[in-house]
Amino acid sequence: MKEKLEQILAQALDEIQAAEAKEALEAARVRYLGKKGELAAIWKGMGQLSAQERPVIGQIANEVRGKIEAAIEEAGQRAAEYEMERKLRRERLDVTLPGKKIPIGKKHPLTTVLDEVTDIFVGMGYSVAEGPEVELVHYNFDMLNAPKTHPSREPSDTFYISDDIVLRTQTSPMQARVMEKTQPPIRIIAPGRVFRNDEADATHSPMFHQIEGLVIDKNVTMGDLKSTLETFAKTLYGEETSIRLRPSYFPFTEPSAEMDISCFKCHGKGCPMCKYEGWIEVLGCGMVHPNVLRACGIDPEEYSGFAFGVGLERITLFRYKIDDLRLLFENDERFLKQF
Ligand code: DAH
Asked: What does the alpha-carbon distance between residue 56 and residue 68 come to, in Å, rounded to a whole number?
């Protein structure tokens, strides 16, 4: 039995020595020290030994157990180091590899110009109002004093969702929405998408953007409108820019006007950009019609105001001298990267 124990010890130590991973050590522990292990078998056989032999063998068996435990303990530390090394090797980071390039996006030209326009007006004390793109006929036309027979109401011009709901054709309904809710003084711009039943070409798109402006207070005059628009034009297109107002018609303003700016390319001399006029049309504007004020619960005897509506695409095309509106909506990176 003594030889058997020595043999078990030698075999166990060999096995523990050879084990690299924790799993192999655990297997050795179960095989030699476990309840059904080799040493347990020896203890079971002790009953057959004589009374003199029993303590001797018992002592040797205990020593063998102690040595195997110590060997496993020591090998356990080795295995942990081995594990760590293997992990480090697996997770090694080569800091000399070139990094992955993350392309950085930039603002769309429409966003850049809208941000600039917003800054100009916020700088003059305006706040920004936003409203629905799917709009009631009530706000898009009725509240804006548009005659029931106005051609812009036709389905050939306007996208109808139902008889009384449209995709807004202008940001002007925001005038009524704001005036209904707010007592003067009012100073807002309202940028947003608008929709019209138009074929897309170099100057038209069924979806585009407008920026509406509205000022209501006591004693607001056309002079205020003109100086405001002049500041706007000079900030956006340069100090040398002049403006002119031409009489026009919109149902919700009286008087109404179109604003032109002096051509930024030829400075008024005449060139293909301005079709040899020296002037370029930029926006519609006017003094808010008393009917509109009244419909919104504002007394036209006490208050007056002006409004304007700018096409964002139009001023962006001028700004960057782009000659086709469609380029703004194609999302071609080669085009957009240039701005
Ligand atoms: N809503 C008009 C359009 O889409 C533009 C416009 C004209 C807006 C005059 C205004 C304004 O606020 O006073 O053609």
From this structure: 19
Distance 335 CA to ligand 1 centre (A): 30
Overall number of domains in the chain: 2
CATH classification of the domain holding 122: 3.30.930.10
Atom of ligand 1 nearest to the CA of 306: 13
Question: Rounded CA gap, 277 and 270, in Å?
Answer: 5
> Amino acid identity of 44?
K
Q: What is the CA(244)–ligand 1 centre distance, in A?
A: 17
The CA R_g of the chain, rounded to the nearest whole Å, is 43
Token representation of residue 323: 């000659």
In a domain? residue 100: no
79 and 115 housed in the same domain? no
Q: Which of 56, 90, 124 is the last residue of a domain?
A: 90
Same domain, 60 and 199: no
At 223-238, the pLDDT tens digits run 999 999 999 999 999 9
Choose one of 90, 123, 140: the last residue of a domain. Answer: 90
Tell me if 186 sits within 8 A of 179, measured CB to CB. yes
Q: Higher-confidence residue: 199 or 27?
A: 199
Give CA–CA dist 193/134, Å, rounded: 10
Whole-prediction pTM value?
0.73
Mutate to test the pocket of ligand 1, among 143, 153, 168, 170 (most ligand atoms within 8 A of CB): 170
Q: Which domain holds residue 70?
A: 2-90
